[in-house]
Amino acid sequence: KAFPKLSSLPDNAKIVVTDMMFNMGGTKFTKTNWPSFYDAINKRDWTTAAKESHRKDIGIDRNNWARDMFMQIKEKP
User: Fold this and answer.
1) Are 66 and 19 spatial neighbours (Cβ–Cβ below 8 Å)?
2) How far is the C-alpha of 54 from the C-alpha of 23, rounded, in Å?
3) How many CA atoms lie within 13 A of 52 on its CB side?
């Protein structure tokens, strides 16, 4: 429900969004809590999505992985 067009996203975006949904759960990973991230995904703005994917409760390596996955997407918004 959160991302009705999830299947149309580039693979790297699908992987990170799914990872975030799975690890945070439906009560933490909401549009209310992550408005800029949701907006970036819906606009297919991968640079902003990379920046907004940063989470405070995980390690730097995991945050860097999420950022790098978005930055590898060649599609422009």
Assistant:
1) yes
2) 13
3) 20
Dihedral sign, CA of 20, 25, 26, 32?
negative
Distance between start and end Cα atoms, the chain = 22
Nearest alpha-carbon partner for 39 in 66, 8, 2, 70: 2
Is the pLDDT assigned to residue 77 strictly greater than 80? no
* Cα-Cα-Cα-Cα dihedral sign, residues 1, 73, 45, 60: positive
Between 60-71 and 11-28, two packed helices, what is the crossing angle to 10 degrees? 130
- pTM to 2 decimals? 0.90
Residue 63 CA: distances (Å) to CA of 1, 4, 5, 15, 77: 24, 24, 24, 14, 22
